[in-house]
Design goal:
- The chain has 274 residues and is an alpha/beta fold.
- The protein has two domains: 175 residues, Flavodoxin domain (Rossmann fold, 3-Layer(aba) Sandwich), CATH 3.40.50; 85 residues, 2-Layer Sandwich (Alpha-Beta Plaits), CATH 3.30.70.20.
- Helices cover 35% and strands 18% of the residues.
- The strands form three sheets. A six-stranded parallel sheet has the order 2-1-3-4-5-6, sandwiched between helices. The protein has a two-stranded antiparallel ribbon with strand order 7-10.
- Strand 3, helix 3 and strand 4 form a beta-alpha-beta unit.
- Helix 1 crosses helix 5.
- The longest helix is centred in the middle third of the chain and has 23 residues.
- The model has no long low-confidence stretch (mean pLDDT 90).
Length: 274
């Protein structure tokens, strides 16, 4: 069977899941191709396959902005079988059933929708989960990944068997989703507090290359400028080699506000955007 994956990743968690799922399906004798949404969404729509999958992070009980925009423009499904795999650090709310409802109207046959708990990928000042959800390292990180892989393999088996299920049903999930989406507007507050420590910055320009919206530019003198098109993916914040990108001045304290460098060394930050 020919299977195509479309993914969006910010700090690497979603790409890790997509790659692990690819390995699983290929071991079962299937052919899998990955498409990155910011570069390959048109090819994902046009290329023929037997089954499609969408991998995405959950941000406040919704997929990230690029996925939201893509979802609006998706072509008619004409019965195409499709599955969804999301990930978050805690709660996914009703994200899965919202995806299914939209895709069903477009004519897709959603055979599965599940969510995996992955490592927290950002700690920053004023975030409510800074105390109980910390960026993990070492054994703690590996334990989360081990549990995620077991769950992902279960998802893959269910998908191949067409065991139909979509996460996000029930009143608690609905309440959770509505609650999270009602406070997403507060992200504008964080967006307005990006800066770069000139003492730490080495003018490598990695942040400008990673930014999925082209929101970060570098002057001839090497000064980093942030625009108005940030989507809070926090790639620049986490992957700066010197932790020079700040969200509020307090985040210069990396012990209190550690950066997430991704789930494993096989996932490289430059792999996200060329």
């Amino acid at each position: 069977m020919k299977i195509h994956f479309l993914y969006y990743t910010s700090t690497g968690n979603t790409l890790w899941l997509a790659m692990k799922a690819k390995e699983y399906f290929e071991e079962k004798g299937h052919e899998v191709q990955l498409y990155e949404i910011l570069k390959d969404s048109e090819a994902f729509d046009k290329d023929e396959c037997d089954l499609k999958g969408i991998f995405y992070p959950v941000w406040g009980s919704d997929p990230p902005d690029p996925m939201m925009e893509y979802r609006k423009k998706m072509p008619e499904g004409n019965g195409q079988k499709i599955f969804l795999v999301g990930n978050c650090c805690a709660f996914s709310g009703d994200t899965g059933v919202r995806w299914k409802r939209i895709l069903k109207k477009k004519g897709y046959d959603v055979i599965f929708g599940g969510h995996v708990i992955m490592p927290t990928d950002f700690n920053m000042p004023w975030m409510p989960w800074n105390v109980w959800k910390r960026v993990p390292e070492g054994e703690k990180l590996q334990k989360i990944l081990d549990k995620a892989l077991i769950k992902l393999h279960g998802f893959c088996e269910s998908i191949l068997n067409e065991t139909r299920k979509v996460d996000g049903k029930g009143p608690f999930n609905l309440l959770e989703g509505v609650s999270q989406r009602s406070i997403v507007w507060t992200e504008a507050w964080w967006k307005n507090h990006y800066s770069v420590s000139e003492e730490l910055c080495i003018k490598c320009g990695l942040c400008t290359r990673l930014c999925p919206t082209g929101n970060i530019t570098k002057t001839e003198e090497g000064k980093i400028i942030f625009g108005d098109n940030c989507i809070m993916c926090v790639k620049c914040y986490n992957h700066c080699p010197k932790n020079a990108v700040l969200i509020f001045k307090k985040s210069i304290n990396t012990k209190k506000y550690p950066r997430y460098k991704g789930p494993s060394k096989e996932i490289r930050p430059v792999q996200y955007r060329k």
